[in-house]
Design brief:
Length: about 240
């Protein structure tokens, strides 16, 4: 049984997975195959990219970051989620997939949009608005069912990538808190930041000296130069209603 299963490999799901995996939780992302962000011609208004960034390249890099954190991925469509034991939600949940083996997880984050029919068996409080459904959540993305969370657009957050990423991270932190994982911050601090004050380095933190800081910066720059060296051949996917026409 996984510690966390995240349904949806878009911005919100990836952000949540990076946080939970870095906190030491065994994290699986079940990816249905396409993030709606892939329909975006150019991702703008995202801090750190003054002239924008190709949305598909951003998704590739975010997924790579999640993989580096220890996240595992499975390409599948989740069809339903039910508790292992209705009387003991702490025993976790079973996720049925289309044409695949059932998955089990102690906690589930729903980060898919806009298909959320798989949540119907859980009665998490889906709210219909036109043709879409949203899930009612608290400030940490917790639903009415203990151990089940919703992140991003599904949780009625605005439809911008930076908002989805931020909310996914916030939900990831809620999962970490509820799981009692030994977690402080995801800081990498300069040598002496904690120990120089007579403190132990907190969980999920580390101190590095200047040589290691420079080495990491060099690796990061090399990876980004490699990632942006050539144009990306992938083109935006069209909205299904347009494609059908």
């Amino acid at each position: 049984m996984r510690d966390v299963c995240i349904v949806g490999g878009g911005v919100a799901g990836l952000a949540a997975s990076i946080f939970t995996a870095r906190a030491g939780l065994d994290t699986l992302v079940v990816d249905g195959g396409e993030s709606i962000l892939a329909r975006n011609a150019s991702l703008e208004n995202y801090p750190g990219f003054p002239d924008g960034i190709d949305a598909r390249r951003y998704l590739h890099l975010s997924r790579e970051q999640a993989e580096n954190a220890g996240v595992e991925f499975e390409l599948a469509r989740v069809t339903s989620i039910e508790p292992v034991d209705e009387r003991a939600l702490e025993d976790g949940f079973v996720l049925e997939t289309e044409g695949g083996e059932p998955l089990e997880a102690r906690r589930v984050v729903a980060a898919s949009w806009s298909d959320s029919d798989y949540l119907v068996p859980l009665d998490v409080g889906r709210i219909q608005r036109g043709s879409k459904h949203f899930v009612s959540v608290d400030d940490g993305g917790r639903t009415a069912v203990d151990g089940v969370y919703a992140a991003g657009r599904l949780a009625d957050e605005p439809h911008q990538a930076i908002v989805a990423a931020g909310h996914g991270a916030k939900v990831g932190l809620a999962v970490i808190h509820d799981s009692d994982a030994n977690f402080y911050h995801d800081w990498v601090a300069p040598a002496g930041y904690f120990t120089g004050r007579g403190r132990e380095v907190p969980p999920c933190c580390e101190e590095i000296d200047d040589a290691e800081r420079r080495a990491r910066d060099e690796r990061a720059r090399e990876r980004l130069l490699e990632a942006f060296e050539e144009p990306l051949d992938e083109v935006p996917t069209m909205h299904p209603s347009v494609a059908e026409e």
